[in-house]
Fold:
Amino acid sequence: MASIIDIKLPRALATALRIPQNDPKRQQVKVLKKLLKKARFTEFGQKYRFDEALLNRNTAKRFQELVPVHDYNKIYNEWWEKTLEGVPDVTWPGKIKFYALSSGTSESASKYIPVTKDLLRSNTINYIRQLISVFGYEDANRKALTKGFLMLGGATDLQKGAAGWYAGDLSGILAKKRPFWFQTFYKPGGRIAAIKDWNQKLNEIVEHAKEWDIGYIVGVPAWCQMCMEMIIEHYKVKNIHEIWPNFGVFVHGGVAFEPYKKGFEKLLGKPIVYIENYLSSEGFIGYKTREHAKGMQLVLNNNIFFEFVPFDDKNFDADGKINANPEAKMIHEVEAGKEYALLMSTNAGAWRYMIGDTIKFVDLEKSEVVITGRTKHFLSLVGEHLSVENMNKAIEDISEEYNISVPEYTVVGFPYEGFFAHKWYIATDDQIDAEKVRQRIDDTLRKINDDYATERDSALKGMFLEVLSEEQFLKFMELKGKLGSQHKFPRVMKGKMLEEWNRFLETGTI
Structure:
């Protein structure tokens, strides 16, 4: 069944009328012009001369010339901070009523990302499109789409700011603002959704699970897996389908699903359809529209203007910080297989905003992408979003607390007891109590990173530490041919280098 929103003209008719069937460039230019017209009288639009870009023959190029690239710190310090004081018409018309609290940095526990009514409306449209697309899946259990929708997300009990705004997890905001017609299908319901304590929320869901007929589950894989395991254990059944026989669709995003899939499928009594979506606090970026697609299709015609900065030495420094005037390509200029950092301009007042993800196009014709990582070193096995800033802060704390020198360190993530764990390797030649240091690092990370704190009480089951000598770190770099000030020890070990690191610790060679 074709999407009623994305009906295409027959190829011959489209050719005859000289209307491109699916012209990504035209879609994106139309989106950009719409955004600029709506925001041209804001403070931001006046400063960066949106009217001038609109009057130019090449609106997109002039927009790129007039407006600088922003990361979170830049746009928050110069613009968004004002909106928290209730100032209207800063980067988007009107006052901001909601803020999504995104993963923490070393400066503060959380980032405040504006969420406007326009953005919520766009997200809802994309959810409906995604739902409709499932009807085209060969293996989809269409009956599942008429049953209950279980959404496992953040609490809808949001914190209130002095200027009258509300802030919380994006999934909590979306659940709180769900359309009235969705109420019949929505689970776990308003009362349970408002619970902030994750364990209490899970226990409530388990208690009521048998009363619901769930066909469609949305959430982070680790949390959903934990919830199903608890239900299976509580009701002494073999699999989740004995409780929810119509469960047929699982929508996930935020972290790679592949490490979970094997364990997830052990909880099932029959096959289900998996749908990956690309939803950030800044907007609904894309979703899988085909069952066996390699990647997610970018949503090009719904209020997000995308730019793609080649993720290379020309545009980024060694720490992953973007240069002042990066090369930014539009959708029709990208190449398959190359890695790009994603910039977004949205109807929530983000302009040429770098969300920090790196992506790669796997199908140019369909504008399908996969997420390849982050612009900076990052560790996020289950959504803990542990950044190098967080890690550096933890090392700084232990150095000051115990008066020790830690010249090098690295962190790895790995499967552990059916879930995941981190292991820290720190270099110091000082005498230390390793357990006290481990505990202090863990405590620091919990304080400065909300997502880490949440996951340490759920899917991130362990945090370990091994103390090595500085000489061992230097020896490894020497064996890699990377001794010298121009080479930096990786803060996060992954892939081939992790294999070499493990081999080096076992044998002394790589």
Q: What stands out?
A: Residues 11-117+281-374 form one domain. The first strand starts at residue 98 and ends at 102. The longest helix spans residues 117-133. The chain has three domains: 11-117+281-374, 140-270, 378-507.
